[in-house]
Amino acid sequence: MEGDGSDSLVTIKNIERELICPACKELFTHPLILPCQHSICHKCVKELLLMLDDSFNDVGSDNSNQSSPRLRFPSPSVDKIDRISRPGWKRNSLTPRTTTFPCPGCEHDVDLGERGINGLFRNFTLETIVERYRQAARAATAIMCDLCKPPPQESTKSCMDCSASYCNECFKIYHPWGTVKAQHEYVGPTTNFRPKILMCPEHETERINMYCELCKRPVCHLCKLGGNHSNHRVTTMSSAYKTLKEKLSKDIDYLIGKESQVKSQISELNLLMKETECNGERAKEEAITHFEKLFEVLEERKSSVLKAIDASKKLRLDKFQTQMEEYQGLLENNGLVGYAQEVLKETDQSCFVQTAKQLHLRIQKATESLKSFRPAAQTSFEDYVVNTSKQTELLGELSFFSSGIDVPEINEEQSKVYNNALINWHHPEKNKADSYVLEYRKINKDEEMLSWNEVEVCGTSKVISDLESNVNYAFRVRAYKGSICSPCSRELILHTPPAPVFSFLFDEKCGYNNEHLLLNLKRDRVESRAGFNLLLAAERIQVGYYTSLDYIIGDVGITKGKHFWAFRVEPYSYLVKVGVASSDKLQEWLRSPRDAVSPRYEQDSGHDSGSEDTCFDSSQPFTLVTIGMKKFFIPKSPTSSNEPENRVLPMPTSIGVFLDYDKGKVGFYDMDHMKCLYERQVDCSHTMYPAFALMGSGGIQLEESITAKYLEYQENM
Q1: Which of 206, 278, 370, 445 is the most interior residue, by most CB within 10 Å?
Q2: Where's the COS domain (predicted)?
């Protein structure tokens, strides 16, 4: 198949973009057709599979033995290539056969089947076009004869059956008339040798003769009879060839017919590119002008500030100089003292008295100044320190003119942080933006600000995940309308919980009393029925009676690490106890719950209230704090005031519990400000459970984890 002239060579050179492999960005070499119909070099498929194999093995080795680092080699070994090329290649014996391959063309995972690379067709058509392109690109480079004795002659033919190129003489020698080889197919000189018959990659001895309309790929009759395509609709190869060729020809004719429209749109794009370039340069010039004006203002202010400092400095130095000269005059034989010594030499009494009176006053004044020395001026320039913090902040937020786009405002009430951060903001409907950019960054303990992370958002809320524990984060948002950007909103500072969030639900089996407690279907909310059974039996009550606590615990225990969970206590609740308890203590409570017999029992401190003073420092297997009547009651402590006004706090909207199992410590937090209200030691020698108890009317709602679904739920509400 030889070239059709210079026009075809020019056309071939113009299609280079279609001949580039999406993986290696070079001309295709032995391209394979993936199930998604994109092509990729044979070597690129192998390299990508090797990378996947290496990353998988690295993860496995890291999980099994972190003390033995994996050795990495710069190039794949031969045995690895052979292993991946073999049918049914597996990553390891414990995993199923690999079926997934990331296509670099469409960036989707495609199924290669059990045969892997061997199940892919080679794109001979594309390979031929690439070869023609290479020949057009190296028009002056000749293909030499493969059979000539040195020096070889330029080839004139290539035999597709022999996969070799020949000069005229060698072709006659190796393809003599009257032999089978004389019937071989030959073409012009080429280095691209393709088989005359396309064979099935699934059944290597069968030729392709059908086309699967469902899978959009050629198949053989065995594939249809009992293979993967047995239930698929197939057509003959000639019919598929005719149909696809007609469709492709119509599409090409349509595009050729629209050539003038395409050229017009190309011209329009060229004009738009030039206009963009001009507008970009103009915008740069305007920006430079604005910054130069700022520089001029700064230079002017700098000059005036420096002049004021210099003037004050000169005035103070002059005062110091005058004062120093006065004091130097007090030295012997200098100034005032020297003059007085000369006056003392006057023998005429009248003349002496006339001069000495004023001189005496001056010396008295100098003597008094010696007794109370005061510098004539201050050395400090504290009043001349330039405060640029506000201006620096404004310059840091310097942005493009918003063209009337209002600044979005973060809604602090609807924004919260738990396992993730949920940020909500509002924006006036009249200036609805096309999109928003939410920025966030970590604030170090020394108030050092790190660089901003950005995420583009289409709505007015976003969930941010993968935040560090016990860290302050700053959030801000700005609006975009086209290419115009609004200034940033006011920053919102949120503090993340001190440990990863611990997920659990209320346990409906262990100790749950359904006569006194009402648990919802989701098992994340429990309510107390306010002693309904007690009211029914009230006619029998003649004496004082202490009702018992109804306990309910979490359905997951803790045996190590740091954990945090949060919940809300309903404002109408009379008495609620919350905290942690060990498995053995829970068994004791649930088997013999406390009642009216033991009013002295104090769960807050973990021991009998009568011995409270002697047991402050002991580590108990549980800790519960009391909440009720919109108050948070801090247990007694030997290290702080135990007056009621110091132990009773307003009940937070949401309460958090932090358990450090390894250190045996539990803390209770105000979730609104992530502030620790109370902390104490707890015995964690057994499995610890979140524990709750209710008396009278009350309700507890576990804090819901923040996820993308949570966001959708909030928007629907």
Answers
A1: 206
A2: 344-401
Name the one residue in this structure whose structure tokens are 């990863």. Answer: 500
| Token digits of residue 540 | 């029998």
CA distance 379 to 320: 10
Gap between the Cα atoms of 714 and 704, Å rounded: 12
State the Cα–Cα distance between residues 608 and 173, nearest whole angstrom: 112
d(Cα 717, Cα 706) in Å, to the nearest integer?
A: 15
Quickly count: other Cβ atoms within 10 Å of residue 689's Cβ: 22
What are the pLDDT digits (tens) for 69-89?
A: 333 333 444 444 444 444 444
Nearest-angstrom CA–CA distance, 78 and 246: 45
Asked if 538 contacts 529 with a C-beta cutoff of 8 angstroms, the reply is: no
Residue with tokens 């390299």: 47
Whether residue 417 contacts residue 496, with contact meaning beta carbons closer than 8 Å, is answered with yes
Query: How many other CB atoms are found less than 10 A from the CB of residue 208?
Result: 19
Dig out the tokens for 258 from the structure. 């629209």
Which CATH number applies to 409-496: 2.60.40.10, 3.40.50.1000, 3.40.50.920, 3.20.20.70?
Answer: 2.60.40.10
- Domain 517-592+619-638+645-710 fold is Jelly Rolls (2.60.120)
Residue 610 phi/psi, 5-degree rounding, is -70, -25
What average pLDDT does the structure give for the chain? 78
Rounded to 5 degrees, what are φ and ψ at 51? -65, -45
Q: What stretch of H or E contains 164? A: strand 164-166
> Whole-angstrom Cα distance, residue 364 to residue 367?
5
Peptide bond into 638 cis (omega under 30): no
Residue ranges matching CATH 2.60.120.920 in the chain: 517-592+619-638+645-710
Read off the amino acid at residue 588: E
Asked if 418 and 703 count as a contact pair (C-beta separation under 8 A), the reply is: yes
- Give the pLDDT confidence score for residue 54 in this predicted structure: 61
- In which residue ranges of the chain is CATH 3.30.40.10 found? 11-53+96-141
Helix (H, G, I), strand (E, B) or coil at 129: helix
Two structure tokens written together for 13: 């050179």
User: Is the dihedral angle over the CA atoms 353, 359, 363, 368 positive or is it negative?
Assistant: positive
Kindly report, as residue ranges, where domains of CATH 2.60.40.10 are found in the chain.
409-496
Contacts of 684 (CB under 8 A, 6+ apart): 582, 659, 661, 662, 664
Torsion of CA 121, 126, 130, 133, to 10 degrees: 170
pLDDT band at 692; cut points 50, 70, 90 = very high
DSSP state of 632: E
- Can you list the alpha helix ranges (DSSP code H) found in 463-581? 532-536
Task: Say how far apart CA 189 and CA 187 lie, in whole Å.
Answer: 7
For 277, the token pair is 């370039």
CA distances from 152 to 144, 165, 166, 188, 695 (A): 6, 11, 10, 17, 103
**Residues shown for the chain:** 717
DSSP letters, 90-114, are: BS-TTSPBP-EEE-TTT--EEE--T
Let me know: does 696 contact 629? Beta carbons within 8 Å: no
Q: Which of 29-33, 521-525, 542-546 is predicted with the least confidence, judged by mean pLDDT? A: 542-546
294-298 own/partner pairs: CB under 8 Å, 24+ apart:
none
Q: In 3-state terms, what secondary structure has residue 133?
A: helix
Q: Does domain 11-53+96-141 have CATH number 3.30.40.10?
A: yes
CA distances from 259 to 153, 268, 669 (A): 45, 14, 70
376-389 per-position pLDDT tens digit: 888 888 888 888 88
At 364, the amino acid letter reads Q
d(CA 146, CA 160): 13
Q: What angle separates helix 42-64 from helix 78-85, to the nearest 10 degrees?
A: 100
Per-residue DSSP letters for 44-83? HHHHHHHHHHHHHHHHHHHHH-TTSPPP--SS--HHHHHH
